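User: Hey, quick favor. My workstation is busy. Could you predict this chain's structure for me?
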Amino acid sequence: VCSGASVASACLLVGASRMSGDAWWRQSAGMRIQAGREGGLALVPAPEQEWVGDKLTALDRDTIAAGLIEQVSLTEIGRRIGRHASTVSREVKRNSGPDGSYYPSVAGAKAFERSRRPKPFMLAQDPQMCQRIEAWMDQGWSPRLISEVLKRDAGGDHTAWVSHETIYQALYVQARGSLRADLHRQLSTKRSARRSRTATRRGTSIYAEAFTISQRPAEVADRAVPGHWEGDLILGGAGSGSAIGTLVERSTRFTILLHLPGRHTADAVAAAMIDAMGGLPGHLRRSITWDRGSELAGYRDIQLALKTPVYFCDPHSPWQRGSNENTNRLLRHWFEKGSDLSLHTAADLRRVQDSLNARPRPTLGLKTPAQALNELLDQAA
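Assistant: No problem, here it is.
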């Protein structure tokens, strides 16, 4: 087939049925076959002549296949063909079939197709895939999350995978505009072009008697023990004086939003936090880590009411609450920067909270935070 024969003729040569041949091809090669009676490779097969330069030759690939059958090390295979072991490792990883088998002719065809330029842009050829991506982005999903979910749903079918980089290119590169032109507005940054990362720093006062993050138990760092929370405020426009409190459980990424309809004073934030977390079982209220902000000046009241210690980050170090920072970025899909957050009711916040907690997370193996938290509650029960 890699030489240009149809699947039907290849099956005839080996004495197999077309159905068996199709099944073997899916399991061992995974390359796309064109529809119709002929059923050959949908893409141009590799040329019979050897490539020049530093590319692997057909003889090299035969030697690699023989070495894999002998179960010798990749280093030994590399020595046989005069290449580094990492070259052999990349070749086997990139060009093996879905079942892990390595066939020289299939590997050569895959490598040849990958090297062709210009490469066809996947999203430009698959309108249905574009519709799925647009629907998920309208729900606030990031390109990386969409890529992970597509990979999970497609299983071993590599042709149905789309990398997050491909999605970003469709959003930012004018020549590859296969997604809606306004779809970049669904990103948490709302940017129409990429920017280099820059560090942002801010600092506020903290009371000398408060616990610092260096005093936090070591069990918090590895996320193995549930019940440790991170919190902060997301602020509205400068003129509105509005804010929403956010709390994120580190091990499950479960999010609680604090409704602050008036000013976000220390008393208001403490009352909202005590009310929101008061119903949680004790083993899910082990600690709270907060950025350095005067809005948590009532931390003593919180500690007494919830029987939970409150720790504060080091100066200019909001990254020490990484889970909360990431969640606040996701929440900007619903609560845009510069907007008046006081317009959102408590019911609005519950809807957003439920939507975010029902969103699959790659860090949880694509489980949702709600599922992860329910598992903890079931174990406790």
